[in-house]
Write the structure tokens for this entry.
Amino acid sequence: MAAVTSVLAAVVLLAGCSGGAEESGGPETPATSAPAETGPPPLTTRAELASVVGRLPAADRDRLQERVVAVVDDWIDAAFTEGEYPRAADEVLDGAFAGFTPVARERALRDRALMSNADLADRLDGVRATRRQVRLDVLAVRGRAVGVTARTVLELQLSGQVQRRDRVSADLFLTYVPGADGASGGWRVFGYDVARGRA
């Protein structure tokens, strides 16, 4: 199991088929279509606000959870589960770290074997998430969230030339970054502690 730790800013204090016509000697039977076979629906993330240090109103907690989990989901989808396989590594990495700060994004690109499927992408036929879980630890000051640790567990079923189950365990450290030049602000990953190995 490989592991990497990166603290890039201040440390957060939290840690179908179709049927044809049949011939029967009588009138021709109209063609009918069988329902297309589909796999299981995509797995959604099971999220929970695990702890809050400091005071944070209930309404703000719900909104915070929604926004932070959206950042985590964007990373999981772009870096691991979405898109057609096999494909080029650059196609996986394109947008995989959009929710990261510039410094964290550069580090994640260097750690791409842990942080994405880029190094396996040309040998995979498909990727399916079998577990997506996020638990949030929040630090609040004066009624406002100032830091979040998103403790994330992702389990993947890989198919193709690579046939295995992987587990990605990640602590993502997030802070709110104000918008600039008219752009809106948002929660961004500024550091991470990630391990990846066989599930």
About this structure: The beta strands are 2-6, 18-19, 32-33, 46-53, 124-141, 144-160, 164-177, 186-198.
